[in-house]
Protein 1
Amino acid sequence: MDRDQVGRDLASLVLTVVELLRQLMERQAIRRVEQGDLSDEQVERIGETLMHLEARMTELCDQHGLRLEDLNLDLGPLGSLLPRD
């Protein structure tokens, strides 16, 4: 295995973990919005933050020659790591 491939694989692993955390944060934010726990300003701020995070993830994937779909790991009988809505 060459250095470039090792670097790409490491970037893929790190971005997979970051994407998993981003999706978990997004689901938690949606739950809080649906519960009505947040002010309109907080809802707006969370929405903007989540959009910026998704855009940044896309940029990072582009920089490393990856697509968001490439980050999803097949866990065999458990299914995929990153569910896509």
Protein 2
Amino acid sequence: MKTMLLFQNKTIPVYLTDTNRQAIDKLSTVLNRKLTTGKNALKKCISSLISVEIIGSEATLHSLYERDTLTISLY
């Protein structure tokens, strides 16, 4: 399933394996928190985010630059 997330005035596609609305809400919370308290590599990935793939309790953040792509835990 594909849905869209509005984050930092950008629309980002989010791909899910199931229709878990809590995962979308948790993703938004985690991204905002990591943007302020995360390490520089994570901040760089979030600032150049082009899509997110959620599988179970993990979110893979796909960045504009492939080497910046990271996987984070939502819970």
